[in-house]
Amino acid sequence: MKKIIVSSIGFLLVLLVYSCRNNSGQEAKSIIGDSTRIVSINGTTTEILVGLGLGNHIVGVDVSSTYPKSMLEKPKVGHNRNMSAEGILALNPDWVIGTNNDVNPELKEQLAQSGVKVLLFDQEYSIAGTKGLITALSDSLGLKQKGDSILNVLDQDLAALDSLPKTEPKPKVLFIYARGAGTMMVGGEDTQPAKIIELAGGENAVKGFTDFKPLTSEALVAANPDVILLFSSGLESLGGTKGLLDVQGVKETNAGKNQKFVEMDGQLLTGFGPRLGQAIKELAEKIQQ
Question: Where are the domains of the chain?
Fold first, then answer.
């Protein structure tokens, strides 16, 4: 069972609904009313909520909630741990929904004291973790059948991956998080980029550390990736392919020599949400061409 945190009187209610897969197999009644207002503070939970048919109930989102495009028009409440309780509460939500990675303890406490119901999940960056998050969120809101529909589509996407060609040896892929030439980080082991690189049949080019580290030319040359992977927004911030080639050390790598640079939408690549199968397929095709 995925860990869920719920504040206020919503605890017992959600606990009951989360157990909605009862012996009779009947669907529990949704706890989302016609006028329920939701602020989603995670791009993946936003995707799931829209897939559950709750897009019209979303009155605010974090900046990672870029899919579907209709979410771009929603008021923004910040990004990850930089969100403030004031900005969220100003939207008068009934529910705040996200993952435990999105909020710090202070924000959790502020939201809990406000009386707003807060629903937070653990998120594991794997196929099983994605399915678990979809199940936990849909069950918690009493929308099991709709959640099962999302899972069915995901399973179909994942089944289609069996026909993808496999390259040996696996291409070494280096993910660079860029916000202009002055802010570049590389993704180590256990990061979301590393996990999806592995699922797509690649090998993360850097090892020996987790999380993200600043990019250095020495480490870049030592890693010698076959492919350099970036968010589309990150490559754009560098000025495109030409700007990336100007980064010290890139031209000395196999990726630089062959100009093997891959860009993908950030939320698709690292969201580990309902489109995970699509993300794996797109990345696999691009790194194994």
Answer: 4-159, 172-287
